[in-house]
Amino acid sequence: MLNNLDMNEAPAEIANTAVPCLFIMGDSLFDNGNNNNLITNAKANYPPYGIDFPDGPTGRFTNGKNTADFLAELLGFDKYIEPYATVKGVEIFRGVNYASGAAGIRDESGIHLGDRINLNRQLRHHKATISHMSTLLLLGNKTLTKEYLSKCIYIVGMGNNDYINNYLMPQYYLSSKLYKPEKYATILIQQYYKQLKTLYRYGARKVAVFGVGSLGCTPAELDLYGTKDSICVDSINSAVQKFADKFKPMIDDLNSNLPDANFIYINITSIAIGDPTAIGLTNLAEPCCEISPFIAKGQCKYDGSACSDRASHYFWDGFHPTEIPNLVSAQRAYTALLPTDAYPFDISHLAQL
What is the pTM of this model? Predict the structure, then answer.
């Protein structure tokens, strides 16, 4: 497929991977450095972020690897997928990570934090990547490029910031004043549907869409709202669930209406089910790093302290998991443990198509 390039330059591992390339779109759960040079408070390129990552603080919003890193490993890639901000030359044929902290489905989500690359911008960046791929192939061959892209896996994880940094922040955004939770969820899924269709139009055929988590259980929201008698903030989880309930019908719709489309849904809420102590997680509500009183709410303090028992903490900061939950999310997205983890099948099956 890449025979029009100088194959001595092409990434060596492509022959050993389950798919030739992996493209990643999403928010801070997948971001691996795209926000580093943006004017924004939503960045993680400082200690103690990356305390357990070989390269130190890289812009990943966790202590070690994120879910996208682990998925790349499970698919056979020998190193992580480069961020769009720094990827060069033929490296784009391995894939590109476009994810950006604070980004949302809606353009305005996260704007109070500063710049971020929302999903519409990530789609534009991918369009630019495709154009560059075509020029690297013989005579800018668009047909060859689309044929190549159809074999790649795309992972997309969006929607968290449309709640955390939009709907749940009435002091900055009008959405909660304009829409009841059900209406907002409907508007959000309609926009997401159009964006995923755009991705399909650009050549994506194997797409794993990651759902939203139980945002009412994050330390930052617990700290903000309190819980009365329950473990999590039930009103938040109830609002977010209205959005989550619309994913499966959206996936069915995309697969029914788009020829050769293979969209799957990864249910993060299902993946979180189980006994966390079985994998050593005993602290489920407290962040591991010292939280900044100044930067974006819930992020680690610059050069702040970090707990020594990181393997027992579910949360790294006020919103993001530590490396162990990231690994479990990737493993169960790749090979479903429960029938509810992935629909209609998991990423390992998507790779084989």
Answer: 0.94
